[in-house]
Write a structure and sequence with these properties.
This protein is of the alpha+beta class. It contains 23 helices and twelve strands. The longest helix is centred in the middle third of the chain and has 47 residues, at 432-478. The protein starts with a helix and ends with a helix.
Length: 683
């Protein structure tokens, strides 16, 4: 309210100055020329000082009002200068045109619609539209200025009155439209100022129409008090919140304004020229012909500029659309766009690859054609989404060949300005691998539980087996009958065999600290194969064992190396079983280049070249779910590398061949070298 109070005080001061100088026309004209220029200029200064607070259409709004204030200042000063030169009061002349331009500027500024946010991309085209309206308005003013007064009146009086009424209505409408935005109070202040201006303009026009207008201070209130509302509104106008405005108005920014303003302005010029010549005839039509020609010359460049700006905005929008299209096409997620009734509208490349269907064929399909029969159907999802909701869950996609795969989907609707759904978008992710890994982990946990159970059962079996062995030995000492002794010896052999199996199971399942010590790799391999001897015999698999007699010792964890060897021979057994025929597994130990190695080979189908690079990856397996976790070779490789060794797939030959290499201990190397030297000296 400070600016409004300042305007009132300024008007009072102006009235007092005018009263004191009323008998000195020359001094009064100079006084008016200076005093009438100050208040509009103050509004311009406030706008310029706050210019960095606004951006885009918000800045265009205030820039248009600022230009209007400058035009008003020129018009008001022009009146005083004209009176000073011509020594007569003639306000209905060219200075009035400038004043009218300043009065209509707020109405033009509303085209920027600053309450909708910054909207920088549309500021240029809106500025061209405002310029086009200004040119046509100037063309309109030129006709009324040149029209002769009749019956003591001038058509320009009616134009000014009608124009200010439109400004008042425009500001009131803007206040209503922006009632839910921070710009409501700004519009309301401007609407109040335009209403005051309309009331005082009506008073002065009435006096001017009856020849009663004078440069006395009472009538000059029309050109002073309303200007106090502009700095008041500008100083309290909300600053642009660029980031929030861009996010909140992104959809609005994409809606380019139609160039109806500039095109309508060009189209109306011939009709306005014809109508105004009939309504307001002039003594000479030469000036009006020149005015019409100048208007066309001014508007046509604006028309070209508007088309160029529209084209630039369309190119920018097209570039953005191409970028978004590339993002969608390159996305790894499966993206499917449907119409509200379920017809396929678009699908990205990832979706087409996953479905194994070309995009052109997808365009002829419906949502239910792409889903397997489940509890939740495609129609249920569409009904929920079209009703304004979103759907998240897992669905099963069905290919043409009958195979299916699960996807995690998020489905939502795209709506228009009225909230009606226009498209349905489903963003999906193939979770087949996740499900397989989860099932393998579950299977791995099950195997771990079975291992603990086996350890407990082995402990329970060990005690009765020891009793059987002990009592058998006692019976053998006391028995002299040969047939009975043979039976007891057979019982003793089988009991010893069972006890050995139990001991091996306990060693394998025992949770130890995995301490490393000197280990004979051949002994570890031999004892591990003994665990699987019965399985190999039942599967008709021949075991070919070749152990090096002078294999150096290695520093290793016996349990971990046993686990590696067991994984290798189990994989070999599975490969032979999958071939559906008898086979052989060859196990060989030896040493070379300071390492001891154990090689496990089979005559199964081998490893395909395409899979050779992935067999050591975690969870990668060629076995079906329930037969393998895909962790065996990965864990084995980790154990080998943790011991400073390696686990490799040997190339060439039939079947698959894996080689485990471990570095020989330095103590073993020194002992082997000393033994070789002693043997050489003995010869």
């Amino acid at each position: 309210m400070g600016w409004l109070a300042l305007g009132i005080l300024y008007s009072v001061a102006y009235a007092i100055g005018g009263k004191l100088l009323v008998d000195e026309p020359s001094a009064l004209s100079w006084f008016r020329a200076c005093a009438l220029f100050v208040l509009p200029l103050i509004g311009v200064v406030v706008i310029v000082r706050r210019r960095r607070k606004w951006r885009g259409c918000e800045w265009l709004f205030w820039a248009t009002i600022g230009l209007g204030l400058m035009m008003s200042a020129i018009g008001l000063t022009g009146w005083a200068a004209d009176e000073l030169v011509s020594k007569k009061e003639t306000w209905l002349a060219w200075p009035a045109v400038f004043a009218l331009f300043g009065g209509v500027a707020p109405l033009f500024a509303l085209l920027a619609q600053p309450h909708r946010g910054v909207r920088e991309p549309v500021a240029a085209t809106t500025a061209v539209d405002i310029a086009g309206l200004a040119v046509v308005t100037g063309f309109l003013y030129s006709f009324f200025v040149t029209a002769p007064a009749s019956d003591g009146s001038n058509p320009l009086l009616l134009v000014s009155e009608l124009q200010q009424a439109l400004v008042v209505l425009g500001m009131i409408a803007a206040t209503f439209v922006a009632r839910g935005t921070p710009w409501r109070d700004t519009y309301r202040r401007l609407a109040f100022g335009s209403l005051v201006s309309f009331a005082m303009l009506t008073l002065s026009n009435f006096e001017a129409g009856h020849g009663m207008y004078s440069t006395d201070y009472v009538y000059d209130f029309t050109w002073i008090l309303p200007f106090a509302f502009y700095p008041w509104a500008a100083s309290l106008a909300p600053a642009a919140e660029v980031d929030e405005a861009i996010v909140a108005n992104r959809d609005q920014e994409l809606k380019r304004p139609r160039p109806w303003v500039i095109f309508a302005a060009v189209a109306m010029i011939p009709f306005l020229d014809y109508a105004l010549r009939r309504i307001t005839p002039a003594d000479s039509s030469g000036f009006r012909d020149l005015s019409t020609a100048m208007t066309f010359i001014s508007v046509l460049p604006l028309l070209v500029a508007r088309i160029a700006a529209e084209r630039a905005e369309l190119q920018q929008a097209d570039g953005t659309m191409r970028l978004l299209t590339q993002v969608i096409e390159q996305a790894q997620d499966l993206i499917l766009v449907l119409t509200p009734d379920g017809r396929v509208r678009h699908a990205n490349q990832a979706f087409c690859r996953a479905m194994g269907v070309p995009r052109d064929d997808l365009m002829t399909m419906r949502a239910e054609d792409l889903m397997a029969r489940e509890i939740v159907s495609a129609e249920d999802i569409q009904a929920l989404v079209n009703g304004g909701g979103t759907w998240r869950g897992t669905v099963t996609r069905s290919r043409r060949d009958g195979t299916t795969f699960p996807v995690s989907a998020a489905v939502a609707a795209l709506v228009d300005d009225r909230g009606r759904p226009t498209h349905i978008v489903s963003v999906e992710r193939d979770i087949s691998e996740e499900r397989r890994l989860r099932e393998q982990l579950i299977h791995s946990e099950r195997l771990s539980a079975v291992g603990e159970l086996v350890a407990g059962v082995a402990h329970e079996l060990n005690n009765p087996l020891q009793s059987v062995i002990g009592f058998t030995e006692l019976l053998l000492r006391a028995e002299s009958r040969l047939p009975v002794r043979r039976d007891l010896e057979r019982v003793q052999v089988e009991a010893d065999r069972a006890a050995k199996i139990v001991r091996n199971l306990l060693v394998f399942a025992r949770r130890s600290a995995l301490e490393r010590s000197l280990v004979d790799l051949s002994e570890v391999v031999r004892s591990t194969i003994a665990l699987k001897a019965f399985d190999f015999q039942a599967a008709n698999i021949e075991i070919q064992e070749t152990y090096s007699p002078d294999l150096p010792l290695v520093v290793a964890s016996r349990e971990e190396i046993r686990q590696v060897v067991l994984n290798l021979i189990s994989n070999a057994e599975h490969a032979i079983r999958s071939a559906g025929r008898p086979g052989a597994i060859a196990v060989r130990t030896g040493s070379s280049d300071g390492t001891a190695f154990a090689e496990v080979s089979d005559d199964g189908p081998g490893v395909l070249p395409a899979m050779a690079g992935r067999i050591f990856e975690p969870f990668f397996t060629t076995k079906t779910v329930g037969e393998g976790t895909g962790l065996g070779l990965s864990i084995s490789l980790g154990i080998a590398e943790a011991h400073g060794g390696s686990l490799t797939l040997a190339t060439g030959g039939r079947g698959a061949s894996f080689v485990l290499r471990l570095p020989v201990s330095e103590t073993s190397q020194h002992a082997t070298a000393a033994f070789a030297a002693a043997a050489a000296g003995g010869r």
